Each structure stands twice: as C-alpha cells, then as structure tokens.
Amino acid sequence: MIRDSFFLWVIWITMFSITLEGQAQVSLSLRFVPADGRYHVYLTPQSSPLGANATLTDGSSQITLTSSTGGNLMPTNIQTVGSATVWSLITTTRNTGDVASGAPAGTDFFVFAPGGNFNLGYMTGVEVELFNFTVSGTCTGNLGFLAGGTQTAAGGTLNIGSYYSVLGFPGGIGVNHFNQVYNVDAPCNPVTPIVCQARAHTLSKNP
User: Fold this and answer.
1) What is the structure's pLDDT at 189?
2) Cα–Cα distance between 15 and 137 in angstroms, integer?
3) What is the CB neighbour count within 10 angstroms for residue 68?
4) Taking the CA of residue 183 as centre, how many other CA atoms within 13 Å lie in the half-sphere pointing to its CB?
5) Domains in the chain, number
6) Distance (Å, rounded) from C-alpha 145 to C-alpha 30?
7) Is the pLDDT reported for residue 46 higher than 90?
8) CA 88 → CA 5, 123, 166, 175, distances in Å?
C-alpha cells in the first residue's frame, strides 16, 4: 500500500510538472543596445500556438521591469515595434512592493501593457521585439524582469506581476505563459561608446 501510494505520488508530481511546462511558452529578454542608447524588450516563443485565432494575445498582458530604488529611474520615449499594438508604461511604483506577495524589497516597478487584445506572429524559437525605451535618472546594478505571478504593491492595491497570455498556447487566455528570461543585459548606467572621427589634413608645401 505504501509503495503503491509512493508511485501514485511520483506520477502525480510528474504530470503536474509536465502541465506547468506545457503552459509556460514565452521567454522574455531585456538588452541595452549601445548603438542606439536604448533598452529593447524581446519575446521568444518556445512553441508555435495552435488552433483557431491562435495568435490572439490577451490585452490584459503586462510586462513588469524592475530597478533598484533610490535613483528615480524612469523609462521614457517608449517606442513600439510593429503595428500589432501599442505598448505603454501604465504603472510606476517605487519601493512599495508587498514582500509577502513575492515582490522584492528595495525595488522600483515599471509595468508596461499593450493597448488591448492583439495578434502577433509567434513561431517556435523566433525572437520578436516588442518595444524599446530610453531612461532618465539612475539606479545601481541592472534592470530586470519581475517574475510572472500574483505579486502586488502598495498594500495589495496594485497588481504588478508579469503576465503574458496567448489563446493558442495550452490553457488559452487567462493562463500565464511567461515563464523565464534569457540574455538579460541591461545595466542601469551603461557607458555609450564614443565614436571618434578622424579629420584628414592636406599639407601644402610653400613655394
């Protein structure tokens, strides 16, 4: 009986893990590009969505970026890539994360959201840029993503957890398909390379 119960428990854990892996289909990346002095947010699907209207993306999706508090960092000049939707900064809250909900302390949160439901051409392993921005102010360390979940701020009055949901991924709209980040390279105060231009001088010989 004990042995049978053990094997049933192992099978349940395995099935639960497979279910979670099946639902989590979206990876996000944040990278500073010295060439344009901007931070770029990218998405890479781990599989292609299936079914009718498979690429429909929940307009309630939100991507939350984080920085250390204290420097009044602020994303500015947000530019959406493509015409599927328009991303904008909808919430900024500084050092008000509810630790009990999983939000880190000493952190500022910047919540970006699309302008409603939209469709995007998701293909397995093909990276898509969502939006990019510049910043004012400073911080220490690096910018990053807040993990997907139900984190809150300001005493539970703000929902700040990252959430991204696509109809054609397992579970459909309402399931959070964001599960991991990759290639995050977003220093708070990057040093933009200085391009030197050489001038050619023609030497003339006096007669």
Assistant:
1) 84
2) 47
3) 19
4) 13
5) 1
6) 8
7) yes
8) 51, 24, 19, 22
Whether residue 139 is contained in a domain is answered as yes
Which sign, positive or negative, has the C-alpha torsion 43, 46, 48, 51?
negative
Residues 87, 80 contacting (CB under 8 angstroms)? yes
Q: Residue 11: which H helix or E strand, with range?
A: helix 2-23
Q: What is the pTM of this model?
A: 0.82
| 38, 136 contact by CB (below 8 A) | no
> Do β-strands 74-80 and 118-119 pair in parallel, antiparallel, or remain unpaired?
unpaired
Instruction: Specify if 103 maps to a domain.
Output: yes
- First vs last Cα of the chain: how many Å apart? 110
Range of the domain at 43: 25-181
Read off φ and ψ for residue 13, nearest 5 degrees.
-60, -45
7 phi and psi, to 5 degrees?
-65, -35
